[in-house]
Amino acid sequence: MPNPKRRHSSTRRDKRRSHDFIVAPQLTVCSHCGAAILPHRICPECGYYRGKQAIEISGSEL
What we know:
Elements: H1 10-16, E1 28-29, E2 36-37, E3 48-49, E4 52-53
Antiparallel strand pairs: 1-2, 3-4
């Protein structure tokens, strides 16, 4: 198996790694309760999705 003949420069290495970073998730606001949620997902606070109740949330809150 062939090996590299020359070392890659730090600039070349860093250009390759320029997209390897962690991105914070984009949050939206629930239209029913106003909680911060991930887009296209049921709200874990109230159970609504696109203005309709999708799941029933139990009332056992701390």
